[in-house]
Amino acid sequence: MTAENKPRLEVCLSPALLHLFDVKNSIVVIxxxxxxxxxxxTALYNGAAKIIPVASVEECVxxxxxxxxxxxxxxxxxxxxxxxxxxxxxxYPREFIEDKVLVLTxxxxxxxxxxxxxxxxxxxxxxxxxxxxxxxxVSQGQNVILGCAAWKDRVNMEDTLFAGAxxxxxxxxxxxxxxxAIAAENLYDSGKADLFEFIKKASHxxxxxxxxxxxxxxxxxxxxxANVLPILRNGELVVG
Amino acid sequence: MTAENKPRLEVCLSPALLHLFDVKNSIVVIxxxxxxxxxxxTALYNGAAKIIPVASVEECVxxxxxxxxxxxxxxxxxxxxxxxxxxxxxxYPREFIEDKVLVLTxxxxxxxxxxxxxxxxxxxxxxxxxxxxxxxxVSQGQNVILGCAAWKDRVNMEDTLFAGAxxxxxxxxxxxxxxxAIAAENLYDSGKADLFEFIKKASHxxxxxxxxxxxxxxxxxxxxxANVLPILRNGELVVG
Lengths: 240, 240
Hints:
Chain A is α/β, with parallel strands linked by helices. Chain A has helices at about 35-45, 55-65, 95, 110-115, 130-140, 155-170, 180-190, 195-200, 205-210, 215-220; strands at about 10, 25-30, 50-55, 70-75, 80, 100-105, 120-125, 145-150, 230-235, 235-240. Chain A has a four-stranded parallel sheet, sandwiched between helices. A four-stranded mixed sheet of chain A has the order 3-6-4-5. A two-stranded antiparallel ribbon of chain A has the order 9-10. Chain A is globular, with a radius of gyration of 17 Å. The interface of A and B includes residues 160 and 190 of A. Chains A, B: Its EC number is 3.1.3.71.
């Protein structure tokens, strides 16, 4: 197959660059490795009925009341005032989350998710569901945008690394004419032998490590611990 | 010296991200490796009196007439209608450019230059003047933003590589708490053994190679062939 016959695979390193991409004709993968999308697949893997991503703490509280759901979300690394739970995947074991509805707001991930609403399909990606994401993307044969949630629009290491991991696994099925994708893959190749060591250089590691979240980070960098595909249907993330 | 005492060194991968940086309190290095900033230092190295960067072809023509200067610029890789010369560094040997004024407009570089106008100082960087840029930045002791001109706001390989080359050389003098800088350095480290081979993967290489510009690209990836410091003074680039 020539490059021309293959769908495109591109990496958008920041929500502030998303307008440069043809969102409407692509599947968009929302990537917020530390920790929103890692937590989303973990909660669904552990049996959550669905996850409703919302932009604001107010919405989170109000929808949570309406549905008698669990409300969760952080602002600057701490549980936001008025919410019950945080962004740690370890807060959502099966005995707690099974069959429950989770309403979730995060600083960066939900913002990007709302920005990408015109996409063919929105899914979420993170190391714990790496294989599920890759298999889905290859099976669909559509253009793909790997959308890094970043940190307040700043390019970050962990989301770029995950985008690179995906590129590295599925690139032969796509036309990759995107320097960000090539750079992300290169970064992943440099770090993959020990992602935890590699990410210690990153700004967000230092931010989270202050809160004692090294175990969270280790989990969020380990492939396939919660290998389901969260897919957005009518504004709700469910297992695809 | 602790990190806190050192000035910041950051990399801005696209003009569309420049608003995230503290331009006003930084020296901004404009990077447009293929080929505007490579050509700028080459023309100055070869004795050009000054270079006036302008945003539009119309301005270029009008200022060119006014000053009886050489007008140059490209749009999408070809000399723009109404202008005399292109973006190739080989168009500006000493016997042609010495003591002349060059009015230059480019797709990406001049745009970023105008966006960064509030910076403490603006200089231009490229491989042909790599050492001059590094020495200047270290000598100033100010915060630095390495500003990639990118390609129509899309992150590109060649500008990121140059930013990485600078980070790699001067990082110990700065506080580098910027994931883009770490990623750029990593990319440069992967490619530095043979930048020309490395960049063949890049989208812009393919664009320029179509026009037969491989020799331009080789020159633009070679360090210190025109080692002067272009510095912006009153809207004009002169040797600093």
